[in-house]
Description:
By secondary structure, this protein is mainly alpha-helical. The chain has helices at 17-42, 44-114.
Amino acid sequence: xxTPAPVGDLTGSPADPETLRRRIAYTRDELAETVEALAAKTxxxxxxxxxxxxxxxxxxxxxxxxxxAVATGYRALAGQTRQTVRRITAPVRATLLLAxxxxxxxxxxxxxxxx
Length: 115
């Protein structure tokens, strides 16, 4: 947009018709670039769409990160739960086995006394 005028193209006498044509063409090109830049800045709909797309990308990225964090936490919690169940069930099994053996012993003793 702010490009300097080409020295070779715009040299010559200001009254020279060819020099004037080149200067006019150069000025038109500069003006066209300026108008395009201003039009882009005033295009509220396009700028809003661009901002919305950027926000959607950010939200999508954050959502994916949260999903990964939840999945990782879930897997860690599931592993801890399995370890806790294994740690607790071993003594429970032993207790149930002892209780079963005691019940069997009592049943046999009672049956012997009743005979």
